[in-house]
TrEMBL record:
The keyword ATP-binding applies. InterPro entries: Kinase-like_dom_sf, NEK_Ser/Thr_kinase, Prot_kinase_dom. Residues 425-462 are annotated as: Disordered. Keywords: ATP-binding, Kinase, Nucleotide-binding, Transferase. Its EC number is 2.7.11.1. GO terms for molecular function: ATP binding; protein serine/threonine kinase activity. It is an enzyme of class 2 (transferase). This is non-specific serine/threonine protein kinase.
Length: 462
């Protein structure tokens, strides 16, 4: 009879996880946190972890045995945090939790994965006790039961996969407070694929992104950084890559910049009349014109890349630094981004600014119709096409020009500004104030281009 090897003895404070539930690549991060905390005096009210042991079936957080006067109830089991307390009874527990978090931050460590279950209440000593504070938020395998339990009320920035710091533990403190004062379990709801932070950062799942295109995104950001920021678009400053996410980091908008000055703008509406669609199209045209003035053609824009700022009466552009090959072929994000893309991009041939003119035509059709069309349906649209035969002749002429299969036969953005439909019955593309703004922008853009040319020439001479 063969005997299985007995597991090593474990302390009552050691924490054991099933290995199949643990993302093993995060074990090194746990060891780094343990090494960081070991440089300081042990936390006064928390488990003192000394190493991580990995077996074929288990991952064990080994804890240093507590001294005679340390540990929950001096070795006796402490109780989980209660629920439904009065504000007076919850106050001493919250003070204890705050002391634990403050001591952790004093040691230059922000956890991010703490929850009400990470704390217990030591009735004898009248103090809170903290456990599992060395685990990163990505410790558990996505989809496992342990992962779902750990993400129930996690901080929004962690749920979105963006970098985090000590404010994530402040969120945890708020969750603990709500846990003590309420009996209802609340959850943090974040979109699994796309999350927009208050600063308009955009987060993608890394598995949906062709990582070799990240360098191209960085080149576009560097190109746009040579000029004045786009007047009606997100100002991206860098790309951050985490093990699970790719984040487009956006510069916080100023007090007078951003959709609705910080309030959420609305997606482009559908089924509008030609008169009501005209101001939105003028705004989209200004966004594209400003982008092209900075020597950048996107190629991946779609109606979902624009929003309508009702308060300012202007369109707002996002994701304009993404190349058409940004998403992995076959992924859901790739399919959505290729629905009505320019035919030259769908064919995989080189493209330029005419691809964004095609996008302008698709946006116009999106505003004037309630039907979703694909690229094959729009190539070489004619006056008898069912997509546009209900429109006026002047609108049809604009759409036909924008949706030409041959990029060379499409008009330029400057040609579009002179089209009768966009000029309106009064013959003006925009109000007098808009014209002044456009003139100032064009003048400043020319100055910036001259400065950029001088910088390029000086670098060449060097």
């Amino acid at each position: 009879m063969s005997l299985s090897p007995s597991p090593p003895p474990q302390s009552v404070h050691d924490i054991v996880f099933k290995k199949r539930d643990v993302s093993t690549y995060t074990i090194s991060e746990v060891e780094e946190r343990i090494a960081l905390l070991s440089k300081f005096r042990p936390l006064p009210s928390a488990d003192d972890y000394i190493r991580v042991e990995v077996t074929p079936l288990r991952v064990v957080l080994v804890c240093k045995p507590p001294g005679p006067s340390k540990g929950p109830n001096h070795g006796k089991p402490s109780v989980p945090l209660p629920r439904g307390l009065s504000e007076i009874n919850a106050r001493p527990i919250l003070r204890g939790v705050l002391r634990c978090l403050y001591a952790l931050h004093r040691r230059r460590c922000a956890c991010g994965s703490l929850s009400p279950s990470s704390f217990t209440w030591d009735e004898e000593r009248g103090a809170a006790w903290m456990t599992r504070h060395v685990l990163p938020p990505t410790f558990f395998v996505p989809g496992s039961e342990a992962h779902q339990q750990s993400r129930t009320s996690i901080a929004p920035e962690i749920a979105a996969g963006v970098p985090y710091g000590s404010p994530a533990d402040v969120w945890t403190f708020g969750v603990v407070m709500l846990h003590l004062l309420s009996r209802v379990e609340l959850k943090c709801h974040c979109h699994p694929r796309l999350h927009r932070s208050p600063y308009h950062d955009i987060v993608f799942k890394k598995r949906d992104v062709s990582t070799y295109t990240i360098s191209e995104v960085e080149e576009r950001i560097a190109l746009l950084s040579k000029f004045r920021p786009l007047p009606s678009a997100d100002d991206y400053i860098r790309v951050e890559v985490t093990p699970l996410r790719v984040v487009l980091v956006c510069k916080p908008p100023g007090p007078s910049k951003g959709p609705n000055h910080g309030k959420p703008s609305v997606p482009l509406p559908r089924g509008l009349s030609e008169i009501n669609a005209r101001p939105i199209l003028r705004g989209v045209l200004r966004c594209l014109y400003a982008l092209h003035r900075r020597r950048c053609a996107c190629g991946s824009l779609s109606p979902s890349s624009f929003t309508w700022d009702e308060e300012r009466g202007a369109a707002w552009m996002t994701r304009h630094v993404l190349p058409p090959t940004f998403f992995v072929p076959g992924s859901e994000a790739h399919q959505q981004s290729r629905t009505s893309i320019a035919p030259e991009i769908a064919a995989g041939v080189p493209y330029g600014s005419p691809a964004d003119v095609w996008t302008f035509g698709v946006v116009m059709l999106h505003l004037l119709s309630r039907v979703e069309y694909e690229t094959e349906d729009l190539v070489d649209t004619s006056v008898v096409s069912p997509a546009i035969n209900h429109l006026s002749p002047v609108a049809v002429s604009l759409l036909i020009q924008c949706l030409k299969a041959d990029p060379a036969h499409r008009p330029t953005l400057m040609d579009l500004t002179m089209h009768p439909y966009l000029m309106g019955l009064d013959g003006d593309l925009s109000s007098s104030s808009d014209e002044d703004d456009s003139a100032e922008e064009s003048q400043s853009d020319e100055e910036e281009e001259d400065e950029a040319d001088e910088d390029d020439s000086s670098s060449d001479e060097d």
